[in-house]
């Protein structure tokens, strides 16, 4: 069955392990992702510095071989919906997301619980640009399943 893109946003992400967190960080959020067992769904809770909490259910469908291109559909959840769904069996990933905006490029740098820094650049509908020189890259892990959210979740 072909994937319907009617309500989906296409994500084309590149991922890099980086040595340091670049400046300037424009915002920081605490994220907990719950990858629902046996599905392509993720429950996400995002906590901003001002105390705002956003909860959503995400459905991700691969469009190509490998993890770098997906059709992503989000449903925003109220407290009752979240309470019902959060009880589903899932693998969990917690991270602190630092958004860096520099030279016209926005990079999300996730600080994992063990201190590892994983940078993501979402190219959306545009062709990938060069990796910013200011991003202190250790390795390109864009095609490595182990460095996807599901791959990192426990």
Report what the structure shows.
The longest helix has 7 residues, at 79-85. An eight-stranded antiparallel beta barrel has the order 1-5-4-3-2-6-7-8. The radius of gyration is 16 Å and the shape is globular. By secondary structure, the protein is mainly β. A hairpin with a 6-residue loop joins strand 4 and strand 5 (69-76). It is 7% helix and 51% strand. The protein contains two helices and nine strands, in the order E-E-E-E-E-H-E-E-E-E-H. The protein has one domain: Hypothetical Protein Pfu-838710-001, CATH 2.40.320.10.
Helix-strand blueprint:
Layout: E1 9-18, E2 25-36, E3 41-48, E4 53-62, E5 69-76, H1 79-85, E6 90-102, E7 105-112, E8 117-122, E9 137-140, H2 149-152
Antiparallel strand pairs: 1-5, 1-8, 1-9, 2-3, 2-6, 3-4, 4-5, 6-7, 7-8
Question: What tags apply to this protein structure?
Answer:
154 residues, mainly beta, Hypothetical Protein Pfu-838710-001, 2 helices
Strand order of the largest sheet: 1-5-4-3-2-6-7-8
How big is the Rg?
16 Å
Q: State mean pLDDT (0 to 100 scale).
A: 91
Percent in helix: under 10%
Question: Brief description of this entry?
Answer:
This protein is mostly beta strands and 154 residues long. Helices cover 7% and strands 51% of the residues.
